[in-house]
């Protein structure tokens, strides 16, 4: 038991360092950002940049993995061709995946919501495999929406720091709430979906409802050391007040 206890402590220490490795560099002067204006491109660098841009422009958007927005636009055009409900669901799912690849979570969520409207209006019972793909894509889209709305714009010292608590809890909760709905559906279909179970706990953290709000059968309890506030959090908060 003593050996297990020591292993757990070392594991917690490693996780805390992984979450914020820069805390070990406290007191060091901050490095100055490099200005692009102060580093002009040479003629050969500019020529290479132009060459790469030309290569990118010439690639086929249907097969180039770096052109998800072009494929999303294609699927959007297809939806205006009077497709059947079943075909519309297929196209909308693929469009949402491409939008996620492009980093456009709001539009990906809109596509997912349109799928839900079609399913409800037509009373469609999805095949198990397609339903799993739909729910998984929806959960990821909602989680990314929550991150973009709560971690990038109103950024603070606890924003998106695991475990999520305090001021890190999402104030705009559409993303986290949507993720809870979709992840719960995945777990009801397959209780052994460990990925969905873990992400469900993260979504409840984002809502400020972990651990009490998580259904007991899907609760993942964190090691006690991860629930303690690391010292660098107080340091960051103090620095923000002084600023």
In short:
This protein is an all-alpha fold and 243 residues long.
> Runs with pLDDT <50, length 5+?
1-10, 13-31
Number of helices: 9
Taken as a percent bin, the fraction of beta residues is: under 5%
State mean pLDDT (0 to 100 scale). Answer: 83
Protein structure class: mainly alpha
Helical proportion, percent range: 55-70%
Shape: flat
H/E series, N to C? HHHHHHHHH
The main pleated sheet reads as: none
- Span of the ends, CA to CA: 47 Å
Number of strands: 0
For the CA atoms, what is the radius of gyration?
23 Å
Describe the SSE topology.
Blueprint lengths: L1 H18 L23 H16 L9 H11 L6 H17 L3 H18 L5 H25 L21 H16 L4 H14 L23 H12 L1
Helix pairs in contact: 3-4, 4-5, 4-6, 5-6, 6-7, 7-8
Keywords:
about 240 residues, mainly alpha, about 60% helix, disordered N terminus
How does this structure look, described?
The protein is mainly α and 243 residues long. Among the domains are: 62-125; 131-231, no CATH class. 60% of the residues lie in helices and 0% in strands. It has helices spanning 2-19, 43-58, 68-78, 85-101, 105-122, 128-152, 174-189, 194-207, 231-242. The radius of gyration is 23 Å and the shape is flat. The protein starts with a helix and ends with a helix.
